[in-house]
Amino acid sequence: MPKYQWVGVDRSGKTIKGVRDAPGQSAVATWLRSQQIRPRKIAVKAQLFSSLNKTAKKGGKVKSKDIVVFARQFATMIDAGLPIVQCLEIQMSQLESPAFKFVLKEVKADVETGSTLADSMKKHPKVFDDLFVNLIAAGEIGGILDTILLRLAAYLEKIMKLKAKVKGALLYPAIVMVVASVVVVVLMVFVIPVFEKMFKDFGDAELPGPTRMVINFSKSFKDYLPFGIVALIVIAVVFQQVYKNPRGRLMIDKLTLQLPIFGPLLRKVAVARFTRTLGTMLTSGVPILDALNIVAKTAGNKVIENALMQARLSISEGQNIVDPLGESKVFPSMVVQMIGVGEATGAMDAMLSKIADFYDDEVDTAVDALTSAIEPVMIVFLGGLIGGLVVAMYLPVFKMAGSLGG
Fold it and tell me: At 17, which CATH number?
């Protein structure tokens, strides 16, 4: 008879472990429950703690795309009538991500010991967040796990597309600025000093004003470059520390939404994400107070989080959701009014989905407009900067050539 090593939680909440001879894992789980111990891990003695050690070594990040594929395939298998454990085994056999495969192995082990799928997933918050776990719990309770998984997959796909749009809009100017900075550093540190030495070798002729200005700037740039690097590092560290502080994060997030060009885009993204998430949760049967709590935590912006938590407090006191959302000045009046209509008619989930679809299109339009406006500006900026430096360096050359020709 094989030996099984187990880990469990007793009535006082203390984690305990031990070894027991049994014909199988289910027999060990039955014995533990008879001892009023809630099982957490049961495995053959030689396997359990070696697998726990592998967990620490595996690490790695699970991609959103892998989770979407997992949810869709899981839904298909559940709809076909396969048991949850068998679904997890099939998923594990075809996964390429070692980190995700190991997480599913842990989830499968917990389900086999009697835990619900939601409770098993809750132990891996880096892969399955609160939104995912709560929707899975709602699906298990309502017997519509396949439907919930399909909704989750559709939701995650749309959120991924939304993130990709914003990253695409911000990536181009960021790359241009990095390239421009590298080019300027190379010119100032390596190229311009060569021209300066060449001009000195030709004699003490007076240099044109733009050339002198660029040479002087190059000298100052080289002298203060180490201090500039240190200053950038200090600013980055200070920013990180300020952002970790709740007040500092609130201030930074508020400024972010007020940026002249990117602020309106980020606000539209926030509205699309908030309405999509809340609509998905309400459609799946999650109570509105729990849904608002989760949506607030996943908002990604402290200003929006505070507005949603205030709305949650208002609802818990028997009031409506519209007033606190309107008073926050975060959400457009159209969004607030549509949510109010949805609340009054009892169709808030459908109304939220319509708002999310509308703002997805708005984000598309805003990203296209932003990209179209940024491209010529970046081209003119780069051309003017690099061209100006080159012309300033070649002005003395043209002057010397003219003197020799005369």
Answer: 3.10.20
Contact (CB, 8 A) for 110 and 25: no
CB atoms near residue 181 (< 10 Å): 10
**229 within a domain of the structure (yes/no):** yes
| 3-class SS of residue 18 | strand
174 and 42 belong to one structural domain: no
Give 314-350 as a DSSP string.
HHHTT--SHHHHHHTT-S-HHHHHHHHHHHHHT-HHH
Q: Is residue 10 part of a domain?
A: yes
Among 400, 404, 353, CA closest to 195: 400
Which range is least confidently modeled, 11-25, 55-69, 306-320?
55-69
Q: How many residues does the chain have?
A: 406
Residue 403: the pLDDT is 63
* Residue spans of alpha helices (H) in 187-261: 192-201, 209-244, 246-257
Output Rg (C-alpha) for the chain, integer angstroms.
30
Provide the whole-model pTM. Answer: 0.67
Whole-angstrom Cα distance, residue 277 to residue 294? 9
Q: CA 11 from chain center: how many Å?
A: 38
313: domain range? 159-406
d(CA 352, CA 373): 31
Mode of pairing for the β-strands spanning 3-9 and 38-44:
antiparallel
Task: Compute the distance between CA of residue 336 and CA of residue 330 in angstroms, rounded to an integer.
Answer: 10
Percent over 90 (pLDDT), the chain? 7
